[in-house]
Amino acid sequence: MNPPIAKKIPKDVTVHDDRRVDDYYWLRERTDPDVVAYLRAENEYADTMLAPTANLQKHLYEEMVARLNETDASVPVRRDEYFYYARTEKGRQYEIFCRKRAVDAGEADAPEEIILDENALAAGHAYFAVGAHEMSPDHRLLAYTVDTSGSESFELFVMDLATRAIVDGPIAALSYDVEWANDSQTLFYTILDEQMRPHAVRRHRLGQSIEGDLELYRETDPAFFVGVEVTRSREYLFIVMESNTTTEMRVARLDDAVTETGPATFAMLQPRRPEVEYHVAHSGESFFILTNEDAFNFRVFEVPARNPARAHWREIIAHRPNVKLDAVEAFERHLVVIERENGLKRIRVIDLLTRESREVAMDEPVYTVWLDYNPEFHATTLRFSYSSLTTPRSVFDYDMETETRTLRKRYEVLGGYDATNYASERLYANAVDGTRIPISLVYHRDTPRDGSAPVLLYGYGAYGVSVEPHFVSNRVSLLDRGVIFAIAHIRGGGELGRAWYEKGKRFYKRNTFTDFIACAEHLVAKGYTRAGNIVSYGGSAGGMLMGAVANMRPDLWRATVAVVPFVDVLNTMLDHSLPLTVIEFEEWGNPAEKKAYEYIRSYSPYDNISRQDYPAMLVLSGFNDRRVQYWEPAKWVAKLRAWKTDANAILLRTRMGEGHKGASGRYDYLKDVALEYAFILERVGRAR
Fold first, then answer.
1. Which of 242, 298, 440, 649, by CA, is between 20 and 30 Å from 69?
2. Residues 177, 515, 625, 672: which is the catalytic one?
3. pLDDT band at 107 (very low <50, low <70, confident <90, very high)
4. Which of 149, 440, 466, 540 is catalytic?
């Protein structure tokens, strides 16, 4: 079967803005029936080409499901007189949110109350996701938002938990943020504009018309998105304006924000300054401000909450060149700091009375850790999760007074998983400029390290996002078939601090690609694999990475998996009508400027396709994706096929009812993973 032929656009087509018209511009028309028909034909072609792997897909899916504890529950979290948790049931796609009233005998002896059954709400929808689910302070009402298209545009509903009746909503076109006031009758939410940008904060009183909702703030700069936050102490409300590199926050007492009539209630903490970010936590009489002002890796200030002017800021954690401060969380008696050194995260707890600081000890040399939901301001117990490439997620409670920790749950991996059968390592590759690039890898101990094993090399390298070395049970299906899994911690990410990010963005973006290539070459040089036996894998901005390295070093890759890939960089960054273009000038540059145009043009995957051999590719996209528009991978695939000189298959599958995040149900997600793994294993000769 031959792939569909993408027609080329007539040369006399013009567009009256800054966009560049290219051969496949016509694919941008989402409502054009010819576009839909073309994408469906691509899906049929991909399904036909993947049909020989159908049995393998089935076996992989069954393996991955067999490792799940399908009927399971999270560790309950106490909030006032209730314990809240989520659970799953065998055969059902989605979570069920529940609670039990706290009793003297413990939460397990109280009757369960189902708060929200996602499975019931998802009935009849191909895609379903809950964005926010916020309990009112009096525990009587649940505010929740839903997305049934994958576009990340949500509708807000409010349910009376006693009657199960919807007492307010829907309010449409919401972003992710929803917060309750202390009166349990007032909500604050963020609204999307026509270009899908969260641009305004509104206040809604239950039972009143949404047309009368008061707009507390509207952002006019398209380079900034707006959010709303309530402090853990429930004393303050923040309106947060953020670009990728700059922050501005406005603050009001939460109770005042309910009674006042307009934006004047909110005082500005610090006006926006280019390249200055800050985040605020509250405890007692103080705000604790995490900022990169004159501190590349961030530092922390304390300031009186009643008078937070810059002149009153007092530094309590100084900048350290080798330690990046990622987050600060405030409780009544403790300050919790998440910091990162040598690529590893750690938790530090500061006693706010004595100001003594201590680090929470971890068990393995390579791991990751993250804070779980900790809603109680007065709590002295901190809940966090721990994982490594071989250790499944483990949930701990850490007593911040006694410095002891208790394992509350280790997520079970069924099917006979034994961590001792697997090994993980941390290697370092030398980049073209001599920088040492970390590589985390994991493999079955029976896998030979003589160059014969295939490697799946994953990379992202953008926005300062750190790719954490955590456990994924699905991955065992690859490891047990002799595939080595590796993460390239390349520049553009945040693993080694802010400088690591800065050296992989804008006019340093090519470092991201050459770092990834250096990691692949290092794995070859050290005998883990050979050139041409590596599968490259990345999604979104990591899909840009996939396209760039396929253009630069196609000989290294046996195959490529590119998920919702951002590959038409130059055209996208010239189109201000798209949701993320303007806010991402800080990440990629503004191609309206000649220097940025030429630099982006030098690496943009779509613009650098050449007449050469390319690896086999599986390209996945979502028709309702508003972050990476579906036409980017569609155009890329069409142009690759027109230019490449080999016979390797390039397959495009567009999920017509989904968006950037792929399948929403957990079983549907595993079917997608099984398809990807079957493609990979068939290409590297491990299809068994």
1. 440
2. 625
3. low
4. 540
